[in-house]
């Protein structure tokens, strides 16, 4: 069972309800149609297109010091490329870096840690080792966790990672 | 060639409510010269000072943000120049201290340091207002523009190290330092 895919519109609504005004992104094919393209057209967000994901760790932190809420929208490969920035800024400096991470290549209905794809199956153990809270959004029912995850990250001033397990649907 | 700390002393004479984002040797020198709550000390993950500054500038367009970067640091995050150019924050000033070495890690040379032109790279990345400054007199003459001109502004400053500064990592990494900046930046 793979379940009903998450609604991109509901995830976007969750970002808004959590007060997110900035989305800092590198394109990811998992979230391209359901999240990044709609966000790019949504006047409620300022989209910052960056070149490399570790930039986003710092951009989001600078925004947080300004009292502005943001999320990074990236792929797991970019997360893996940004570990040192996440470690230094998010974990050691205790900053609310919120990551929405598309799991490109994850098999539908398979837990990330059970994926045959190495770049997918190492993500959760790395997050756990760094003590970063994580939530898997695999089905539409999982979307309910998104807004509280963001609220908690800012309340506690800690990073959080929302793993997007299958492509969110685009609004028709 | 000007000394980095002399440059920073000149800048400190003019800085008021600007947020200063400083990294590595520029941060140590700046702390010695101008220890203030509005200093954002970006050390921990090398190369991210410009991106921290961009986030601050986008979040508070009413405040000027000046990044004191290093050449080795910026080489680790050259894409940030394109991101900055695309975001075009009018309140963002990027000063890169070019000494050609990784000073914090044994003063080994930067790759291609004799051929690399940071102002050209910044201009090619889409930042319109770029330049290179090699003398203290020229830098002092530019400071009023750096504090008032429309950003993003990029300047490569050709420097050598001046007097050594204490390397107070405890202060830089301290949660209290970040809390003081947060409070000052919110005003």
Question: SSE layout and pairings?
Answer:
The complex is a heterodimer of chains A (about 170) and B (about 190).
Chain A: H1 8-17, E1 20-25, H2 32-40, E2 46-49, H3 53-65, E3 69-75, H4 76-81, H5 83-92, E4 98-102, H6 118-121, H7 123-130, E5 133-137, H8 146-156, E6 160-164
Parallel strand pairs in A: 1-2, 1-3, 3-4, 4-6, 5-6
Chain B: E1 2-3, H1 4-12, E2 19-22, H2 24-33, E3 39-41, H3 49-59, E4 65-70, H4 71-75, H5 79-87, E5 92-98, E6 101-102, E7 108-109, H6 118-124, E8 129-133, H7 136-148, E9 153-160, H8 169-173, H9 175-186
Parallel strand pairs in B: 1-9, 2-3, 2-4, 4-5, 5-9, 8-9
Antiparallel strand pairs in B: 6-7
Order of helices and strands of chain A: HEHEHEHHEHHEHE
* Count of spatially separate domains of chain B: 1
Report the portion of residues of chain B in β strands.
Answer: 15-25%
**Beta-strand content of chain A:** 15-25%
Q: The biggest beta sheet of chain B, please?
A: 7 strands, parallel
Q: Which tags fit this structure?
A:
heterodimer, A: 172 residues, alpha/beta, Rossmann fold, six-stranded parallel sheet, 8 helices, B: 187 residues, seven-stranded parallel sheet, two-stranded antiparallel ribbon, 9 helices
């Amino acid at each position: 069972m793979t379940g009903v895919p998450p609604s991109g519109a509901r995830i976007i609504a969750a970002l808004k309800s959590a007060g997110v005004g900035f989305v800092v992104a590198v394109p990811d094919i998992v979230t391209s149609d359901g999240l990044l393209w709609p966000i790019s057209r949504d006047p409620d967000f300022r989209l910052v297109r960056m070149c490399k994901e570790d930039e986003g760790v710092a951009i989001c932190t600078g925004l947080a010091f300004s009292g502005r809420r943001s999320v990074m929208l990236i792929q797991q490969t970019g997360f893996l490329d940004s570990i040192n920035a996440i470690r230094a800024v998010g974990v050691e400096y205790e900053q609310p870096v919120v990551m929405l991470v598309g799991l490109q290549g994850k098999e539908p209905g398979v837990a990330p840690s059970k994926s045959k794809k190495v770049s997918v199956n190492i993500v959760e153990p790395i997050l756990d080792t760094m003590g970063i809270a994580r939530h898997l959004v695999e089905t539409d029912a999982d979307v309910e966790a998104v807004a509280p995850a963001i609220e908690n990250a800012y309340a506690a001033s800690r990073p959080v990672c929302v793993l997007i397990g299958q492509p969110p649907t685009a609004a028709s | 060639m000007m000394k980095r700390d002399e440059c920073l002393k000149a800048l400190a004479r003019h800085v008021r409510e600007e947020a200063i984002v400083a990294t590595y040797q520029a941060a140590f020198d700046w702390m010695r010269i101008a220890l203030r709550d509005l200093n954002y000390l970006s050390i921990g993950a090398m190369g991210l000072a410009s991106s921290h500054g961009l986030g601050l500038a986008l979040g508070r367009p009413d405040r000027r943000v000046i990044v004191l970067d290093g050449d080795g640091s910026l080489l680790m995050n050259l894409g940030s120049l394109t991101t900055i150019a695309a975001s075009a924050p009018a309140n963002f000033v990027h000063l890169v201290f070019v000494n050609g070495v990784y000073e914090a890690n044994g003063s080994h040379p930067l790759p291609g340091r004799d051929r690399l032109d940071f102002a050209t790279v910044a201009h090619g990345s889409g930042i319109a207002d770029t330049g290179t400054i090699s003398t203290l007199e020229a830098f002092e003459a530019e400071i009023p523009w750096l504090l008032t001109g429309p950003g993003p502004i990029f300047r490569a400053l050709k420097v050598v190290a001046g007097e050594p500064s204490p390397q107070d990592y405890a202060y830089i990494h301290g949660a209290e330092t970040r809390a003081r900046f947060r409070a000052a930046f919110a005003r």
